[in-house]
Automatic annotation (TrEMBL):
Record flagged with keyword Cytoplasm: yes
Keyword Cytoplasm: yes
The species this protein was found in: Agromyces albus
Catalytic activity as recorded in UniProt: 3'-dephospho-CoA + ATP = ADP + CoA + H(+)
PANTHER family linked: BIFUNCTIONAL COENZYME A SYNTHASE-RELATED, DEPHOSPHO-COA KINASE-RELATED
Cellular component GO terms held in the UniProt record: cytoplasm
An example Gene Ontology biological process: coenzyme A biosynthetic process
Family of the protein in this entry: Belongs to the CoaE family.
UniProt keyword list: ATP-binding, Coenzyme A biosynthesis, Cytoplasm, Kinase, Nucleotide-binding, Transferase
CDD domains reported for this sequence: DPCK
Name of protein: Dephospho-CoA kinase
Pathway named in the protein's UniProt entry: Cofactor biosynthesis; coenzyme A biosynthesis; CoA from (R)-pantothenate: step 5/5
Pfam families the UniProt entry points to: CoaE (PF01121)
Amino acid sequence: MYLIGLTGGIASGKSTVARRLYEHGAVHIDADDLARRVVEPGKPALAAIAEEFGPGVLRHDGSLDRAKLGELVFGDEEARARLNAIVHPAVRELSSRLIAKAEQEDPDAVVVYDVPLLVEASVDHPFDLVVVTSAPRRTQVKRLVEERGFDPIQAEARVDAQADNAARLAIADVVIDTDGTLAHTMSQTDALWHRIEEEQAGRSVGGRS
């Protein structure tokens, strides 16, 4: 198995790169999706959140009221840390199981773990490669406003709330510059896939999978 950690700031082109790698045949695991799954009704993490933040964060049907929870943790570092202490280990456990399952089904699988908070959550899976998508702050803000309908001030706040890009670039093995055209992003991603295939071929020659 070849495990890639894919990260990048909001609106930095991460989804585009993930989709391209998936088209090439990679198994795609999305940390945001896992974070939603671990707080579904009946899951231990949801019970722990309700215990920590009160029953007011639950809807009448027992599901998580994300807006209510968001109000409680937004701008409150201590509250967000308490929430992360519940959610991050649950996501870690689920992602480990899914990565192991992908390897079991295909020992030569290329698995892309798409994780926005790779730096912030100190995700420490044994990655073969950490790939960071990078775009200037102004480009991220512009995309949030034009493509996702954010208010400009809200867009700036969302970008600034994330890890400093320098922290992500410091752990990158590969940086994909997404500030240019879509074709430029795609060609860099295709080159990355070619590199992965070559590394896998080298492993096979070396007698390892």
